[in-house]
Amino acid sequence: MASFASFLSNAGRPVQDRTGLTGMYDITMKPPAPSGPAPGEQQDGPTASDPGYGVDSALSDLGLKLEPGKGQVETLVIDHIERPSEN
Question: How far apart are CA 61 and CA 41, in angstroms?
């Protein structure tokens, strides 16, 4: 789950694993269908055009949820930068 939290962090905001789960898991996330059902077909899940469907909905399908909070985050700060010398 720590690796999955790290994967989710690459989407913009830091995500910390607080699940307490330590085993290996095979997680498959399927994106929503890009459009509505074909004529005569029944829609059986969310679609990309649904305004409320996003990461939270996809995680909910896995039984997980993101909760905003405060925690320690590793940060790199660059105070000064210069071009290297010619020699």
Answer: 23
Radius of gyration for the chain, computed over Cα atoms and rounded to the nearest angstrom: 20
CB count in 10 Å sphere of residue 37: 11
Q: Domain residues of the chain, as ranges?
A: 1-87
Closest CA to 73 of 3, 15, 11: 15
Verdict on whether the full-model pTM lies above 0.90: no
CA distance 39 to 15: 40
Look at the alpha carbons of 72, 74, 75, 81 in this order and tell me if their dihedral is positive or negative. Answer: positive
Which token pair is 37?
A: 């059902």
List, for residues 15-35, the tens digit of each pLDDT value: 888 888 888 888 887 766 665
